[in-house]
User: Fold this.
Amino acid sequence: MQQLSEQDAAFLASDSAHANANVSLLHIYDQSTAPSGKVRFKTILAHIESRLGSAPIFRRKLMRLPMGLDQPYWVDDEHFDLEYHVRHIALPKPGDWRQFCIQVSRIHARPLDQNRPLWEVYVIEGLDSFLDLPAGSFALLTKTHHAALDFENDDELTARLHDLSPATGAPPPAAPWFANAAPAMLPLLARGVVRNLLAPRRLAGPLSRRLRKLAPSRLALAGDVLLGGAEMPLVRFNAVVSPHRVFETRRFGIDEFKRIRGQVRGATVHDAVLAVCGGALRRYLDAHDELPLHSSLYALAPLSVRSGAAAVNVDAGHDGLSWLRVALGTDVADPVQRLRQIHAQTSGAQAMGQAVGAREQAAVAGGAAAVLGRTAKLAARALAGQRAPMAACSITNVPGPQGPLYLCGARMSYFSAMLPISDGLGLSFAVTSYDGRIVISPTSCRELMPDPEGFAQCLRDSFQELLALAPQPAAAARARPRKRVP
Assistant:
């Protein structure tokens, strides 16, 4: 038995009839590397079952207290049924990318059954008409509620399913598992009553305990780094979202992003990604005659506060990350100038973040969910005319490994993600990195973005515009001064 943290309980409370906190990870595999050249559903099912014991959360469900007297608890699901959670579907002919995006958007939008463990896996076959992906590929979609995710400790199902080599052999038999009995309700109710009585004399939850330790001046500085003070105009993504989702994606080379960032001294790959997303947003809104001309739109984005080489990696991980409200330069026509402005913000905020210190940065990083929630609430109030929204979108890194991974011997050839959206914050970009590639995947609402293919083309055009201005690798090598040989 384990009680949910304040932050995870807030993710649960944020669910509504038309928006939920599901996070879906998408993987596509090449079956030709599997031992027999074919991976069957029963093999995947046995493989997943053999890895369930690596983390208790996969067989735990929520236990709520009457009248919400305290945060819910994770307890063992005595009726756990693996085949409920792992499902097998196929795309209809011709099995193209558009059909895939529609199918995964529908799966992502459906709420999870909160009377069962908060995850589902879909094995998707029939991917017969994908460009740049091997014939006979299959996909794995894992959908997990944000309250059950812990990327920092790899307590996430897909992180535990993959191997570094295709030669893994047959999965061992699953170890016997017996559910622990659910705790008695009366002691939990008594504990909840006591916690509520003591609430005025303490700040509940680990996030509050961390923030309580901050000096007032440092807390104010952290807030400035996170949210800034400027306001922005309303755009279509600051509206109420519907229950329908849309998803698209574009793949790029990490080396190409390194060329792009080289146009501004000191810029990082992350700065280049933000500039591409800002350019895409500018192009899309301009095509719909909705681009604000005199002020920039903002995004919530993670900021690395590390120094050295790790600071330029998109997949730097959660350690050393805080959240920054970044002006995306959507009012700037020159793409290099846009990149320069973004770098000035992130480098300045990084310097302030390092000045705040490691303990305070941990508190700020832990409060990312609260920042997102506050932004969504402010944007929702803006719909009623109370004030301008804080951001037009979120841009979030979902790190992946830079070497190949395998599932039952099949090599993973594609990795992306779908992230939650909410009222007032109806666009999220997932930026995934894997095996030398960066994938940028926007998720939105069908009513706010009826043409996701058009938005994806704006992403591609924004990237190509910046890449065309970057020096060619050979030219860059000739321009580099030679070192004298002693």
User: Anything to note?
Assistant: The chain has a mean pLDDT of 80. DSSP finds 15 helices and 16 strands in the chain. Residues 335-356 form the longest helix (22 residues).
